[in-house]
Amino acid sequence: MTSTPFFDKSTHPEPGKVRLTTERLDGTVALVTGASSGIGAATAIMLAANGAAVALAARRKDRLEGLAATIRDQGGTALVLESDVTNEQQATDAVEGTVAELGRLDTLVNNAGVMLLGPVVGAPLSEWQAMIELNVLGLLYCAHAALPHLLRAVEDSPRHVADLVNISSVAGRVAGKNRGVYNMTKHGVGAFSESLRQEVTKRHVRVSLVEPGLVATELAGHNRAEVLETMRTQFSDVQPMQAEDIADAITYIVTRPRQIAVNEMLIRPTEQE
To answer: Left if phi > 0, otherwise alpha if psi is -120 to 50, otherwise beta: which for 206?
Structure first.
């Protein structure tokens, strides 16, 4: 009696053969927010190296110009978009400017964010407002503007898949003391990402959540002096990750074949508890 396989094996490699699981991004366009430094800049460079034309969005135009020059010197295509994504119109303009100048949008990396830690009691309300405006509203503005283009990209791209990658934090997985509102914003990003994933995954827009632990970037530098001192003590024995480590993870996510979706990736330094 001959059995019929339950799954179609047409996409599986023959025994003894290795299937390449990394796909280049040639002919695609990526928009990276918060691209002027750290994870955003490193991600833009890696996506460009994998063939994507990259739109760079952030407030610091001089930094973006320098990054664009680096990408172009390496043979890539880069578009500078001076933008504050906490402003709904500027966020929308960044998305629409990407499509107008580069022709399409296949990948959005929602990287822009701010981390302002400290006790809830006595905290400056301005810090809470800044985190909600950037970590939540800025991300939502960009996602809302990008989704129609990502859905369209699925139809007319040779890869027939698009990606929306939201950068969260370990703080979006585990709530800790003295980071109450930051925890709240990043937990919110996780909840939004999972709900949206369920909504669009069968339309082949992949929604992925990346949750880094300690990374050596400018992110912590915006904190008050007493908060910085506490952080130095807390992480004194931890070797931090580099921005390129997270960029490598993001690039891994968006270069998977169409049938593979990496929904969530939690990345900590080896020594971080």
So the answer is: beta
Q: What are phi and psi of 145, to 5 degrees?
A: -70, -35
Model pTM score: 0.90
| Residue 20: inside a domain | no
- Rounded CA-CA distance 60/64 in Å is 7
Q: Is residue 42 part of a domain?
A: yes
User: Which residues are known to be catalytic?
Assistant: 182
The whole-angstrom separation of Cα 169 and Cα 209 is 9
Q: Supply the range of the domain harboring residue 101.
A: 29-267
Q: Is residue 222 part of a domain?
A: yes
Examine residue 120 and state whether it is found in any structural domain, yes or no.
Answer: yes
CA 125, 266, 252: angle at the middle one, nearest 5? Answer: 120
Cα 211 to its chain centre, rounded Å, is 10
Using one digit for the tens of pLDDT, what is the confidence trace for 21-58? 678 999 999 999 999 999 999 999 999 999 999 999 99
If we measure between CA atoms, which residue out of 111, 129, 110, 221 comes closest to residue 181? 129
95-121 pLDDT, tens per residue?
A: 999 999 999 999 999 999 999 988 999
Cα separation of 174 and 256, whole Å? 28
CATH number at residue 235: 3.40.50.720
DSSP string over 173-198: TS--TT-HHHHHHHHHHHHHHHHHHH
Helix axes 38-49, 243-254, angle to 10 degrees: 40
Number of domains in the chain: 1
Instruction: Give the residue carrying structure tokens 């490598």.
Output: 248
